[in-house]
What we know:
This protein is an alpha+beta fold. Helices cover 37% and strands 19% of the residues. The chain has helices at residues 10-20, 29-32, 57-70, 121-129, 147-153, 160-163, 199-202, 236-249, 260-270, 290-306, 318-329, 331-339, 354-368, 394-413, 432-436, 438-451; strands spanning 25-26, 50-53, 74-77, 94-97, 104-107, 112-115, 133-134, 170-176, 182-186, 211-218, 220-221, 227-233, 254-259, 280-286, 311-314, 342-344, 372-377, 382-388.
Amino acid sequence: MTIARTPAPIDALLAQLRAEIVGPMLTAPSALEPYRRDRAADPNAGTPLAVVRAQSVADVQTVLRFASEHTIAVIPRGAGSGLSGGSSAVDGAIILSTEDMRGIAVDPITMTVTAGPGVMNAELKAAAAEHGLWYPPDPASFEFCSIGGNVATNAGGLCCVKYGVTRDYVLGMTVVLADGSVVELGGRLIKDVAGLPLMQLFIGSEGTLGVIVSVTLRLRAAPPPSSTVLVTFDDIDAAGAAVLALARTGRLSMLELMDRTTVECVERLHAGGLDTTAAATLIVQSDEPGEAGQAALAAAAEICSAGGCVSVRQAASVEEGERWTTLRRVAIPSVEAAAGSLLLGDVGVPLPSLGALMAGIESISRESGVPIALIAHAGDGNTHPLVMRDTTSAEAIARADAAYGRVMDLAIALDGTITGEHGVGRLKQPWLAANVGDDVVRLNEAVKAALDPQRILNPGAAF
């Protein structure tokens, strides 16, 4: 997608912008290339005019004022770890990177942290840990995803089943709007209902309404070390039924699932001792202290045994449990390495429909002849179908694309969502109306028009 631009010599425009910002501006083709796509590897990504690596709120304001004046598209970008094409470049746009905005300040008294959007999730966790505190949202990519991106997509992760998603921890933020004006929303208060909840508009907005330049997040006391069990099933339907029963206990801090295809890919690269013959592998954790945690896991093991599991292994130590968790974290790159090219999904359904979703994805894979690996934050119904895309022929690409679309349609038919935590981006935009309905799309458009009337912010994403 290309946005109309006020006629002016491009070189003169870029020279003007370069003179007004503090941060570096990249224009060489080799420097632009790494910024054209996120991890979704959008094949339709355009070529930007420039990349600006903002160093401050003032830099962000300058870029947006300049873009508004000349009607130039701006693509906000964090770490580029997104899986839906949400930061794919647009021809003639400016990529506005917040990767260098990395300030971080922990307030142990209010149990909050204020961070720049370029701070990595792992860095924020480490800063909180220095004060005996903890930031729960825990994407599998926590070591290389940024807080700004987490907020912009309302990221989830492995411990959502107990601790919720990014939205549940955002107390305040500073946002630069499309015209370059700055608004402060929320703060460090736990309770604050003054005015409309405008801050909620920007959480999960994928850079289409404004650029988040600072965020204040709630922290918690660090939990006790987790206890872990590894459970295998020879039937994915039985695994789905067990997940439903396990989630109802309300005592687990993690409930993750990998199917056979995923485990085979993980074992090929990491040789972690997982059972490659199992139809489904569950990683089940409790962080309740002492005997309570052991009782929670014993109850989980009993549920799985009654549900027909093949094996239950309790981790002999916290370290062994963390090793199993790490194997789950590397699942997507492991499948990616095996496939070469992936179409990445993160569809979610109400928990009672999880079994039907998994069975349906298995059928789509079989009928289309397209391998689809499945991983899931199973405890909250959020799954990641990974369509393994053969790019050796146009016919193979078309089959993979069709299988991906069928997965989206299946999630919608099960009263689910086309995205639980990675955003609509550009890859899933065609299914948005079917997912939320035309009336909701119109409301989205009305909000967009109010905050970004020139539609310069991330055009083509989500809407």
